[in-house]
Amino acid sequence: AYNIHVNGVLHCRVRYSQLLGLHEQLRKEYGTNVVPAFPPKKIFTLTPAEVEQRREQLEKYMQAVRQDPMLGGSETFNSFLRKAQQETQQIPTEEVVLEVLLSNGQKVKVTILTSDQTEDVLEAVASKLDLPDDLVGYFSLFLVRQTKDGAFSFVRKLQEFELPYVSVTSLHNPEFQIILRKSYWDSAYDDDVMEHRVGLNLLYAQTVSDIEHGWILVNKEQHRQLKSLQEKVSKKEFIRLAQTLKYYGYLKFDPCVTDFPEKGCHVVVSAGNNELNFQVRLPNEQIKEGSFKVTRMRCWRVTSSVPMSNGPSGSSPGKSEVKLELAFEYLMSKDRLQWVTITSPQAIMLSICLQSMVDELMVKKSGGSIRKMFRRRVNGALRRSDSQQAVKSPPLLDSPDASWEPMAKLSSKLTSVSLRGISHSSSANDVGANDFHGNYAFEGIGDEDL
């Protein structure tokens, strides 16, 4: 059997015969010209070298399928992975109550099936909150890990090939939770969301939470104005003011390590406004800030490796530490490209952010709308919830914390997983992948943009 990992966690275990079955199904649906070649069957028992060769071939095959927009986004491919995930984790199909958090800490309990995919769960939460159908596509479900101070560390955006209930319960750790947040980057879309009462309340709760966690930078005067708007319950004006603040709409990542401008620098990365923002602590303890625009990244890749376990052969492979890196090739000047690497357990989430920024830019460039990016399944009967739940108003902002002022001191301490989420591993039975993404938004860069 072959292990498929997502973000260093076992997603599913599949046999060669199951992958061959998937291949034959794809060929039947899309034709032999579209589907990549599959590693051939062998009559005799494979030698260790042949086993490793087959693993590498299967890795390349899965990579090629995932990166093909038609095959990788197909229901055949995604349902194969969902079914394999459920079988591997041995969770029967049954009705359960799943708890989904809102940014203000409020819990929304939805009754779903264990076999419900991400879109089903998102629709169930939207229904419970009475969020209109045409606004559902502006939000996504994220897997997060709650930190001791009540903040969230983002693991990944839940993908179409996974079952949220199975993904969160199979981690066997109450720190992991699912949270609902907006999923777009351009704050111009806030206007669409604020048109509706529930959309406005969700956006307001998220903005208050991001300010409280120090993700959005606020000086004393701005803080006073925000609190005054809160007291008047002027939610739209509160959001309008917040939109003018530094790091509004950014996702902040945990402190990690980068090789820019030199190896071993501690960095806090934030993603937003079509860029990755770096707050780097140099070896001389000086803190520098800079940004890498997504339109100047030629490509990026996620690499992951599982170190060889020194423990006894019976020890659990899930316990070995997975090292994840995001590397992107950046146009530093008109004719100079340079690779920049971030070593972080959140590398896949960073990659998902880059991919979704590029997708949004491309939709905008083609004159499309992100409303249309949310494809409702034709046969998906939406289960409207009988009992609705209101989004609670968050409490008033606390006094500003001195450490929020202009620069927070840094702690010294698959591209879109989509399967581009197969992790590279030293175990011969793990299907791995060093994911590589070309950036379509990069091609539109002219000299005047540099």
TrEMBL record:
Intracellular or extracellular location(s): Cytoplasmic vesicle membrane; Early endosome
Gene Ontology CC annotations of this record: cytoplasmic vesicle membrane; early endosome
Keywords of the record: Cytoplasm, Cytoplasmic vesicle, Endosome, Lipid-binding, Membrane, Protein transport, Transport
Mode of membrane association: Peripheral membrane protein
Domain named PX: residues: 1-88
Ras-associating domain boundaries: 94-185
InterPro entries referenced in this protein's UniProt entry, alphabetically: PH-like_dom_sf, PX_dom, PX_dom_sf, RA_dom, SNX17-31_FERM_F1, SNX17-31_FERM_F2, SNX17/31_FERM, SNX17_FERM-like_dom
GO MF annotation list: phosphatidylinositol binding
Chain intervals for the UniProt region annotation (Disordered): 381-403
GO biological processes: endocytic recycling; intracellular protein transport; signal transduction
This protein's record includes keyword Hydrolase: no
Organism superkingdom: Eukaryota
Family the UniProt entry places it in: Belongs to the sorting nexin family.
Function according to Swiss-Prot or TrEMBL: Critical regulator of endosomal recycling of numerous surface proteins, including integrins, signaling receptor and channels. Binds to NPxY sequences in the cytoplasmic tails of target cargos. Associates with retriever and CCC complexes to prevent lysosomal degradation and promote cell surface recycling of numerous cargos such as integrins ITGB1, ITGB5 and their associated alpha subunits. Also required for maintenance of normal cell surface levels of APP and LRP1. Interacts with membranes containing phosphatidylinositol 3-phosphate (PtdIns(3P)).
Descriptive protein name: Sorting nexin-17
